[in-house]
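Technical annex, item 7. During the second reporting period the consortium partners agreed on a shared format for inverse folding records so that results from different sites could be compared directly. Each record opens with the tokenized structure and is followed by the designed sequence. A conforming record, contributed by the partner at site C, is shown below for reference.
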């Protein structure tokens, strides 16, 4: 970890610096533009690099990342920049501030979880301007633990606690400081980020000046195992937008499906039960179609057709594969809706599926395609799917009678 006092540590809100471009090297389809001054935060330590633009005279060259190389700091651009020139480096402060919020939120959240589960150790971490992802190992974590920690973080945010930093000798590090394994052996001096008495961690990233700058904090996903947890979260405006959109989605349905907001969990539980029952019903229908198909005869060809509400194309394909088609035969399955999908499969018929049904589908306003014995497609803007299905069955029967 750097021992120098870097500007993005002491005052991360400085938006612009004068820099010297040293050289520019192509890297794949991009370019790494090396600068002399160490004034911008490179990717590392689980945090993405800064973004911004180089202004050289009247020309502006955006950069989408900052990296540390053996030769020094470089910004990643999509076009070359002439070396040995002076430039204004302008930091993308929206991206910087978002990373500051997410990184400080991660410190509070992990610190809070570890107070309740001290066995937890930090593993994978990624912080950028969109979200944060962190993995903790060494203990089991329940959903209730996650939600309790989230609530406690929001309380700490509301207290608007000052965030401070200091540089200390690795050998004199306090036991209360959170440090990743191996860091003290690699660096003689470490930067410690403190959020009041709530968290103290060795870190090279960018952070807010006060916990209140984090704004709203929200866990958006989690994956649990017996000895680890992987969490994704957002903070600030993205969290507010997400919570607002979810709340509004519930609000606009409050009177369509009468319920109170404190009943939302029970409503979702019932929805899950209904979904499981729906899938069981579809499985039953599928089994009946496979085991007891209704077979009609059109000309010399056995014809099976079914109207299957709630079946998607993949489920219809799986169903057809289970059916035992023998002799000259054809199967038509249709899933109704404003977009109605169908599948036609033939067996032991000289004519291709497309030549049998393709013209009929097109005449009825549908589209489709396929191989020799399979033809799939659909109809858009269908107002009466059952009427469409009946017309399709009648038309196909007439066509089969000519074979």
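Designed sequence (site C submission):
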């Amino acid at each position: 970890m750097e021992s120098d006092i870097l500007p993005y540590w002491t005052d991360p809100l400085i938006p612009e610096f004068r820099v010297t471009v040293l050289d520019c090297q192509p890297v794949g389809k991009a370019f790494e533009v090396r600068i002399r001054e160490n004034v911008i935060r490179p990717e590392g330590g689980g945090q993405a690099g800064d973004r911004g633009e180089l202004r050289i005279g009247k020309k502006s060259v955006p950069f989408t990342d900052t990296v540390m190389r053996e030769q020094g700091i470089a910004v990643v651009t999509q076009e070359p920049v002439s070396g040995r020139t002076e430039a204004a480096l302008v930091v993308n402060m929206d991206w910087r501030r978002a990373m500051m919020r997410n990184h400080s939120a991660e410190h509070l959240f992990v610190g809070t979880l570890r107070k309740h589960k001290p066995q937890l150790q930090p593993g994978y971490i990624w912080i950028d301007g969109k979200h944060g992802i962190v993995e903790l190992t060494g203990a089991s974590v329940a959903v209730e633990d996650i939600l309790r920690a989230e609530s406690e973080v929001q309380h700490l945010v509301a207290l608007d606690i000052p965030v401070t930093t200091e540089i200390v000798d690795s050998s004199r590090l306090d036991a209360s400081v959170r440090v990743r394994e191996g860091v003290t052996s690699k660096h003689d001096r470490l930067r410690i980020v403190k959020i009041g008495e709530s968290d103290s961690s060795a870190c090279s990233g960018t952070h807010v000046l006060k916990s209140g700058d984090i704004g709203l904090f929200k866990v958006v996903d989690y994956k649990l195992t017996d000895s680890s947890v992987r969490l994704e979260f957002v903070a600030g405006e993205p969290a507010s937008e997400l919570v607002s959109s979810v709340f509004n989605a519930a609000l606009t349905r409050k009177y369509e499906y009468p319920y109170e907001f404190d009943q939302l969990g029970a409503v979702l539980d019932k929805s899950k039960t209904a979904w499981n029952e729906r899938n069981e019903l579809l499985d039953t229908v599928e089994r009946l179609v496979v085991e007891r198909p209704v077979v009609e005869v059109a000309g010399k060809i056995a014809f099976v057709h079914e109207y299957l509400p709630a079946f998607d194309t993949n489920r219809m394909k799986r169903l057809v594969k289970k059916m035992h088609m023998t002799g000259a035969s054809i199967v038509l399955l249709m899933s109704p809706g404003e977009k109605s999908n169908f599948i036609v499969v033939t067996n032991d018929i000289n004519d291709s599926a497309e030549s049998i049904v393709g013209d009929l589908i097109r005449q009825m306003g549908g589209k489709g395609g396929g191989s020799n014995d399979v033809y799939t497609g659909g109809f858009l803007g269908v107002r009466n799917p059952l009427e469409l299905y009946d017309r399709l069955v009648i038309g196909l029967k007439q066509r089969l009678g000519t074979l």
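The longest strand covers residues 16-27. Residues 259-291 form one domain. All partners now use this format for quarterly exchanges.
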